[in-house]
Model the fold of this input.
Amino acid sequence: MRLAVRGIPTPDADQLRRGGPDANGQAALRRRAEGQGNPCRHCLDLIAEGDDKLVLSYRPFASPQPYAETGPVFLHAAGCERYDADALPAWFGFMTQALVRGYDAHDWIVYETGRVVVGRELEAACRSILENEAVAYVHIRSKFNCFQCRVERG
Done:
């Protein structure tokens, strides 16, 4: 099975960079990236230490509903290209723990799919979850429940 791994949509990132409201109705905060734990959710690359980043609340669902989780994410403050590939970024393999779970076509969690895995197991976990016909897509989240990316069948 081929995977389709995508960062948040470019229109969402552009709107947030222009000062539009985040999932909590607030403008993103501008900060300097410190250390190496600053992944941009649009290009799925790590934001370099010292570069400007946006910190905001993001809900990776079309509309609010009981399973539409919201959490903090980072974006490059400057524009970047959206990640759209058939594999996870290499740095995902170094995540110590990640949450991975499938959602159905109505954006509800498919309960039996939820897992906590180490980074090197993420791709296999996504493939396994996507074998379930009830699953439309998978979300990968950090151990802190921060949205990382969406994975679909390619």
Observations:
- The chain is about 10% helix and 30% strand.
- The longest strand covers residues 52-58.
- Helices lie at 10-17, 122-130.
- The chain has a mean pLDDT of 96.
